[in-house]
Design a protein that fits this description.
Blueprint (H helix, E strand, L loop, with lengths): L12 H10 L1 H25 L3 E3 L8 H20 L4 H17 L1 H4 L10 H17 L6 H26 L5 H12 L2 H10 L3 H16 L3 H14 L8 H13 L4 H22 L4 H12 L6 E2 L4 H4 L10 E2 L2 E2 H23 L6 H16 L3 E2 L4 H13 L3 H28 L7 H21 L19 E3 L28 H19 L12 E2 L7 E10 L3 E6 L5 E8 L6 E8 L5 E3 L1 E2 L15 E8 L5 E8 L38 H12 L12 H13 L3 H26 L4 H12 L2 H6 L6 H19 L8 H21 L2 H29 L4 E2 L2 E2 H33 L11 H10 L7 H12 L3 H22 L20 E7 L5 E6 L3 H21 L2 H14 L18 H18 L3 H24 L5 H8 L10
Parallel strand pairs: 2-5
Antiparallel strand pairs: 1-6, 3-4, 7-15, 8-14, 9-12, 9-15, 10-11, 10-14, 11-13, 16-17, 18-19
Length: about 1100
Amino acid sequence: MGAKLFVMPDLSIEDMIQTIKNSGYAVAILVFLAVCILVYIYKIRYEVEGCVVYREDKKKDYVNILLVLGAAFLIKSVLAVKYAGHGTDMNCFYAWSDMIFDNGISKFYYLDAFTDYPPGYMAILWVIAGIRRLFGIGLTSDAGRWLIKLVPMLADLGTAYLVYLFSKKKFSEGTSLILAGLYALNPLVILDSSIWGQTDSVFTLAVILTCYLCMEEKRIQAYFVYIVGVLIKPQAIMFAPILIYTIIEQVFLKNFNWQKFKKDLIGGLAAIVVMFGLTAPFGLGKVISQYVDTMGSYEYCSINAYNFWAMFGKNWASQNDRFLGIKYSTYGSLAIVAAIALSAWLFFKKMKEDKSKYFVSMAVICSTMFLFSVRMHERYLFPAIVLVLFAFLAKPTREMFFTYVGFSVVCFMNVAHVLYYFVEKDSTGPQGGIIGITALLTMGMYGYLYFAAGRNTQILSKMPAGKKNEKNYIWKRKPVREKAENPKPWGDIRGTVKLAPFSKKDGIALGVIVAVYAAVALINLGNMSAPVTHWDQTEENGGVITLDFGKEQNIDMIHTFLGNYEDRKFMAEVSNDGKNYAQIGEVKATSVFCWNNLSKTEEDADADTYNLADKYRYLRLTSQDQESVLMELVITDAHGNKLMPVNRNEYPELFDEQDEYEATVTFHSGTYFDEIYHARTAYEMIHGLYNYENTHPPLGKYIMSLGIRIFGMNPFGWRIMGTLFGIGMLPFMYFFGRRLFRGKTWAASALTFLFAFDFMHFTQTRIATIDVYGTFFIIAMFFFMYWYSQMNFYDTPLWKTFIPLGLSAVMMGLGCASKWTAVYAAAGLAVFFFAIMGKRLYEYVKAGKEPEGRTAGIEHSYIREVFYRKLWSTLGFCVLFFVLVAGTIYLCSYIPFSDGCTDNVARFEYQLTDTANPVGGVYRGIAEFLENHQNGFTELVGKMVKNANTMYNYHSQLKATHPYSSTWYQWPDMYRPMFYYCQTLTNGLKEGISAFGNPLVWWAGIPAFIFMLYRIFCRKDKTALFISFAYLVQYVPWMLVPRCTFAYHYFPSVPFVCMMIVYIMVLLRQRSEKWFKWILLYLACAFVLFVLFYPVLSGAPVPETFVRDCLRWRESWVLIY
C-alpha cells in the first residue's frame, strides 16, 4: 500500500525516490495539502475574509456539480477495484452479504457467526448480494469488490452534494464546486471508503443531515434521519446529544408551548416505533442483544486510534488495567462525560448565537471521545472531519477551514498507517514513532478546534441577481500597508546603540526561566554518595585479595566499584581449605567509578556469571595488572544476598561502604559514556595523578574537579559544574537577546526559553563531559564581541569599549582552554572584529567627504581627528588581551595537568630520538629549546606543547567508528541521536539518555537559516548576517573533519539556531501583532515536546512501549532498547 513514508524510513536517496514513486498515500496527502492551500489563497479566502461578495445566484444549474461528482465517482471506482481493502472488514462484508441473502433476514442474527453490525447495513448488504446474484457477479471478483464498496462511495458523493448545496447559501458557484470536490477527493474519504472499504461515510451522512435539520429547526425529520444512522452503525449513538440540545433550545427555551412539545413528542416516539418496526424482521431481541454486545466489545484502551492512550503505549492494552488504582475504562467514561459537558458549554454558552454550533458541538464530542475515551478505533475521528467542514460552511472562517484540513491530515495518517501495517506487514498492532507524532498532531488540532470555534466572520450583504457587469461583486479594499523604511545601508555612520535599562520585567522573566530550568536540570542528576575509601595494589599485598567466608558459600557474582584504572583483570580462584585453589578463570572490571560485574574476559568468556556447581569457603582474586584500585567489593549469592567474609577487617576499604551497592547498575550510581574519561581525569587532577584524558585541553576537567572537591567523587559531584554552566548559559542568552533584538523583553525571553528547553542543551549539560564548557565560553565570547560591535569609539570613551572587548578575549582564552572547538569560534571572532574595524574605517572615509557634517550626534571633524589614535589603541589592546591574556589563560590551564613526565627531557626525548617517525620543523625546534632550558615556566610550556601535539595527532589520525556516529550534514536533520545510556530496571521499566535536539528547534532551524540568507542578500540585514556568520563559524569546520563525529558536536551551533528562529519571530510580530499568539503557541509546543521527551533526555524510568510508539519518530533513532 506504500505508506512507508509515514514512518520516516532511513533510506538512500535512490531508495527514497523509488519509495515516493510507489507511495500513493504520501503523494495523495501532499497533493491534498497543496491544493487546499492554493485553493484558499487564490479562491476561497476572498469570500471567507469578506474581501469579495459575489452576487446571490439562484439559478438552478446542476450540470457543473454532476460533472464534479461524476469525475469523483470514476476515480473512486478505479481505486475501489484496484485495492482489495482491509482483509478482515472486507471478508466480513463478503460473508455477511451471502449469509443474509442465503438464510434470510429473520434468521441472520441467529446464525452461529460473528455479526457485529446493526440491521440497517445488513439490509444494504442483502440488496448488494441480490444484485450480485442477479448479474452473476463473483463474490470476491473485482465487480463484487466494487459492489461492496459502492454504498460508502455513494454516501461520499451524497455528502459532497450536500456540501455543494450548503455552500451555495454563502459562496459563489465556483467556490461551492471547489469545496464539494475537496471533500469528494479528500484522500481520507477515498482511503476510508474506496480503498479500505469501510462504511463510516454512510452513517456520517445521516449524522450531518441530522445536524443540518436541527439547525433548520426541522426536528421531526431529524429524528427519522438519526434513527437511520443508528441502524447503519452504532457509533451514531454518540451524536444523540444534538437532538437533546435541539429539543432543549428550540422546544423548551424558545417560545415554549404544549402544542410544540406534543408535536415533538409524537414525532420522536414515531421515529422510535419506526426504528423498532424496521428491526423487527431481524428479531427484535437479537438486535437489541447485538447492539449491547457491540457496544461492549473490544475492551482495550485503544484499538489503533492514535490518541492519548496510544501515545503512552496503551494501544491494544486492556481497559481493565489500572492507573492510580483506577481502571482505564473509568477514565474513558469520565472522558465521555467531559465531552458532553464541553459540547453543551459550546452549544448553550460559547456559541449561543452561532449557527455552526450544531456541527461544532458534535465535532467536539467526537474528537474528545476519540482522543481520551477508551475502545476507540482508528476511523472514529472521521465524522468530526465532516462536521468541521459543515461548520465552516455555516460560519466561513479561515480557522475552521484549516481545522478541516488539519483534521483530514492527522486522521489520514492514522488510518493509512494502520492499513499499511495490516496489508504490508500482516499485523493489527502497528508500531513506530508515527503513532506519537499523529497523536500529538491530533491533540494540537483538537485544541485548534476550540480556537476556531471562537472566531467570527464578517458577513457582508449579498448583491441581488442580475446581468453580469463590473458590479457583480464588490471588492472591499484593504488599507494599504505603508512600506517599511528601507534598511539603512551597511556603511552609515551610527552611534553606540542605547538599550533600555534592564527592567523589573526583565528580571522576572529571566528569573522564572532560570529557576524553572534549574529545578528541572538538578533533579535526578545522580547520587550524592559513592564509595570513597579504596584498596590499592602495592608491592606489599602483591595485588592479592583472599576472602574467607567462614563456611562454604555458593558465590554467584563478584561486583566491584572500580577506581581510576580501567579494564582491570583478576585471576579468580576458589578453595575449601585455604591451601589448594582451583581457578575459575580470568575476570575483568571495565568501567571506572562505576559498579562492575566481574565478567569473564574475552579470552575466557564462556559465561558472565559463575554459579559454581560446588560451594566454596575461600575466594582469591589476584591482579593481572601493574596497578589496580578498587573502591568497594561486593559478593552476592544466587538470590542477590550479600556474602560478607569473616576476614573483612583485613580489607577494610573494600567492605566499609556496602550500602552504596546497587544491584542494577544505573547512571545514578556511576559513570556513563565519556564520563569514564573526563570525570576520571578530574579526580586525577585533584590527587596529582597522571591525567588519562589528554585529547582535549585541561580546563574543562579542572572546572569539573571543583564540583568533586565540594560534593565528593560521586555522580552528583562530577556532574554539578556542567549543570551549573548549563544554567549559566541562560542569562547570557537573555542578555544576548536583548542586544540582538534592541531590548525587547519578550524576544529575549523567547530566545532564552527556546534554548533552555532544547533537548541537547539539557542532556549535554547534565553529563560530565567538557562540551558544555566550550559551548558556554563560545556564547560568552560572541556576546561580548557583539556588545562591542554595538559600541562606537567615536562617541564612547575608549576605555568603555575595552570592557566588552577584553571580556570577549578572556572568554575566548577560557573556551580554547576547555575544548578546541572554541578555536574555530576564535577564528570567526577575529573576522568579526576586523569587520568592525572596517566599519570604523568606512565611517572615517565617509566623514572626510563632508568634514563639517554631523551624523548620529557625532561631528565628522572629530571622527577625522581621533580615528588613527583610537584604531591603534584598540589594536594594541587586542594584542594584549587576545594574544597575551588569552594565551596566558590557556597556558595556566596546564598547571593542574600531569602528563606523567618529570621534565622536558623525559617529555620530548622519545620524539626527538625516534628515527622511525622523526619530527621536524617548528615543533622540533620548540621541543629542543624547551629540553635545553629547564625551569618552571618552560616545564609548563612543555606540557602545553606536548599535549597540543598529542591532541592534533589524535584527532587528525582517528579512524575509529561508532554505531551512533553521524556526519555534519545529518545533524540539523537529527538523523542519528547520540545514544549515551540504557538500562532495564527490576520493575521492567527502562532508562535511557540520548543527545539530540528539540524537533521544533533543530528542524525549524533549516528553513530559518535559508530565510537568514534571503535577509542577508535581499534586504542587507546585518542582524541576520551576524547570526548566520556565528552559526557557520561553529558548523562549517566540521565539514572538513574526516574523523568520526557525533550529534553533540552541533551543540555550539544550537544557540545561534535559536537566535535565527527568534529573529524570525521578531520580524513576524513587526509585520502584524496577530503573529504573537502563534509565537506563544510555538513556544508552548516546544515545551510540550521537552516534557514528552524528558524520560529519554534525563534517564527517568519509562515503559519501552511509550518510547517505541510515541518518541521514536525515525527508524534511525535508538532512544532505548
